[in-house]
Amino acid sequence: MAFFYLTHSTHLCYNEVMKYPTKESDTVELKREMPCSDQIIKTMIGFCNKNGGKIIIGISNDGRIIGLDDAEIEKILESIDKAVYSAATPPILPRAYTQRIDNKSIVIIEVAAGMNKPYYRKLEGLTKGTYVRLGRNTIRATQDMIDELKWQSIGLDFEDLPVYNCNKDELNLDKIQEFLNHRINHSKAKLNDHLLNIYHLITNEHADYHPTVAGILLFGKRPQYYFSEAMIICTHFEGTSGRTAIATVDCEGTLFEQFHQAQAFVLSRLYRSFKIAGMRRDEKLEIPEVALREALLNAVIHRNYHIKGPTKIAIYDDRIEIFSPGHFPGPIRSNDLLLGVTYLRNPTICKIFRESGLVEKLGTGLIAIFSSYKEWGLTTPQVIEGDNYIKCILPRTALKTPKENKDESDLILGMFDSASEITVQGVVRELGLSRATASRRLKGLVDSGKIIRIGKTRSLRYRRA
């Protein structure tokens, strides 16, 4: 049962036109007049299934205080409790009251975040009648969302569920032992079932040990055999529209392997600037590398692995977009992201990544992303909650592309300022060109007599003529 809660004091904005100080959000909905019972029930169910919220009646969409007459207020206060209580299950008990502002009366209806999720509309049933709040909208929950709401209500995480169709032999015990030998702030330990249980990598049911979801994803021998969509697809697109793919790679294996593969691919596609300082060549990536690292880590350790869809990374000329399945976990809201607030969807995965040294402090990843971009004077990144996905956008504005800045052939010749020999792979890595483009540019420089080829096939390299 969801019980009401009290709000803190409200400070009003006295401008030329009186406006209510709170804008619409995932916890606030403004209405000029009382909506139909069907709409208000869905909204309140959405609030209960997320972070709670309030419907404020007597406010226009632009925030102007319109007010309600006494008859309207009386009708709302008399009908709301019974209408919502009888239409939703588990029962929802809202708190409805009036507030007087500048001689105008409004009605505020509040509900708390529910303790017995999922809440749904009786008339539609659990599958079709479960709603959640997403930004300023109330949407019908998917089956994945419904399952996660059920686990939340009993304090269970999907990552800790047993994988019944396999046994402990599916875990790579050598990799687990290596992890135990190199844990941060822990001494070495010998692998045994007790430790596997402590780390929630296995679970015991009916005298049998089964790997957990986290165990398979972190240390499984065949993670994609059991979770085919638990992978990262990286694609580099031409231009800014995403119509033509230049290169793509499927990052598979354990979560550690996926993270390193994805990071290497994205880094290989980004541009670097070079500066010779004495005998040393300094290079600078076009975006803060810490921002890329933290964005990738967030996508790996916080995504919803119950959803049958891959994490996707799309690289465009002006941005990098990282799509992670699932919405913000638990009570996390978009305006909490830079406050260091942490709510873990996958505490086991996060704990092992942290003890592996890949995650330093919980709740600081997004802060590092935004602060590093601000320090470099770059366009601010974006984090967007969509329909069951989170999208992180990292702008690419640090450097001009080679075509805008300098001819690609000149950039290749510039590499000889700090190296006596170069390779096709080196050009691809340093300049972010495709292998085909790098080979064409090198051939053109050979044909023009500016560089010479040495060796063949795998040993092929180039020197200044």
How would you sum up the major sheet?
A: 6 strands, mixed
> Which fold name is given in CATH as the topology of the largest domain?
Heat Shock Protein 90
Q: What is the CATH architecture assignment of the largest domain?
A: 2-Layer Sandwich
Runs in which pLDDT lies below 50 for 5 or more consecutive residues are 3-15, 398-405
Instruction: Give the terminus-to-terminus CA distance.
Output: 80 Å
Average pLDDT score: 85
* Percentage of residues in DSSP E strands: 15-25%
Which term fits the overall shape? Answer: globular
Write the layout of secondary structure elements.
Elements: E1 28-31, H1 37-49, E2 53-57, H2 70-87, E3 88-89, E4 95-101, E5 104-111, E6 120-121, H3 125-129, E7 131-134, E8 137-140, H4 143-153, H5 173-181, H6 193-198, E9 202-205, E10 208-211, H7 213-219, H8 223-226, E11 232-237, E12 245-251, H9 255-269, E13 272-277, E14 280-285, H10 289-301, E15 311-315, E16 319-325, H11 347-355, H12 365-376, E17 382-385, E18 389-395, H13 402-405, H14 408-414, E19 421-422, H15 424-431, H16 435-447, E20 451-454, E21 461-464
Parallel strand pairs: 1-2, 11-15
Antiparallel strand pairs: 2-5, 3-6, 4-5, 7-8, 9-10, 11-12, 13-14, 15-16, 16-18, 17-18, 19-21, 20-21
Helix pairs in contact: 1-2, 9-10, 10-12, 15-16
